[in-house]
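It would be a great kindness if you could assist me with a short task in structural biology. The matter concerns a single protein, recorded as an amino acid sequence and a row of backbone structure tokens. The record follows directly beneath this note:
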Amino acid sequence: MNKVDDNPSRAERAHATRELILTAAERLFAEHGVLAVSNRQVSEAAGQGNNTAVGYHFGTKADLVRAIARKHLAQIEEIRQRMVADIGDPADVRAWITCLVRPVTEHLAEVGSPTWFARFGAQVMTDPTLRPILVEETQSSPSLVRILSGLNACLSDLPDDVRAERYDMARQLLVHMIAERERALADNTPTPRASWHDAATGLVDALVGLWLAPVTNDS
């Protein structure tokens, strides 16, 4: 009779350690900012006695940030692809904006409280050295390219400078409003909406209003 080996393999142990580090780093980065947290603090929070564990498993802090982003964005991409495939009217601005907002909120709802990814994203997006990482990882999404193309087609009457300005405004709302709700949930303080689904509805409403707002010509 063959003896069953209950000991995890080296690869399984390495994977488990990586997951512990990713979770600890995401939480610490979200709560304190990326630059304020050392690799040693991440290792300690992940229960690793070896202070070089972060460098061994991920390399630089930038590599760690990219790994956290990829872990979540891969799951968000699956939801977004499904929503894009279900769009009925390609001329519906709300439909495209819904595909921008709801994949993120649906993912956070699925993860369950507490979550840290929204606040992590807000911290990274306000760091000029790390922001390109998240922008690059996000822009590699095939479904996001399709959404932006569809949205542009709906808004072809907007002047180029106004469209660019409203993209910047929309990004600020998308990043920071979701992070603000996540922060309120973590702090157990009141939120304007009862659920992530309802919060997404409010954000979609606001973004539709932003995109379809009149353009004032001061010249």
